[in-house]
Specification:
The chain has 256 residues and is α/β, with parallel strands linked by helices. The protein has a single domain, classed as Purple Acid Phosphatase, chain A, domain 2. The strands form 2 sheets. Strands 1-6-7-8-10-9 form a 6-stranded mixed sheet, with helices on one face. A 6-stranded mixed sheet has the order 5-4-3-2-11-12, covered by helices on one side. Helix 1 packs parallel to helix 2. It is globular. The protein starts with a strand and ends with a strand.
Amino acid sequence: METINVAEGKKVYFASDNHLGAPTSEESLPREKKFVAWLDLVKQDAAAIFLLGDLFDFWFEYKTVVPKGYTRTLGKLAEITDAGIPVYFFVGNHDLWMRGYFEEELNIPVFHKPQQFTLNNTSFFIGHGDGLGPNDKGFKRMKKVFTNPLSKWIFNWLHPDLGVKLGKYLSVKNKLISGDDDAKFLGEDKEWLVQYAKRKLEEDHYDYFVFGHRHLPLNIALNDRSTYVNLGDWIHYFTYAVFDGQTLSLETYKPQ
């Protein structure tokens, strides 16, 4: 469990589900500029920034090639980490094929599974959220296919021009992958990440569970000491969470 000290006047920020590049690079560009403006704003008082996956609608790292584009986002992240502000990245179901680029070029650690963090004296359980809980069966099946070494090996041998084009097409085309089809509140008793968090509380206490993936801004009390927060997205809601050293709250970015 990693511990982060949040000094007085500093904050920790959480965001997820930008899906940059979807449905097209041209249509995604205004959203990317908005996100970069947000990064530029929060870096002023950030103790750390957590990005909880699906930053890109499709991402695959060949040995010497990464998808074209996203220069503004990648450059801003490099600027932030160069300034000494830690950034943590959790892969989503769209950008799970990461193989060292973020670590080597941006000095950003990449996590493929949920992790525990302590911010000051507050405990967090953090992850993208795909494939967790009793349901989400479609994602679980797809994740098995996508993470299979044979699948990755076959895709790796496609020419990048073909592989990236195919990956982007499938990512936008398949609503099951993008998560848009289930971006409706199911009710607390049917929200599988809520059920997952409640089961985790039977093993250990966490003050906050923070996930993305659902594309819905949610803030649900699990009991009198624990809260589940879903970050929403940067497609419809432009929401994020901020921890001020004591409490976590959901906010909406509204540029000046």
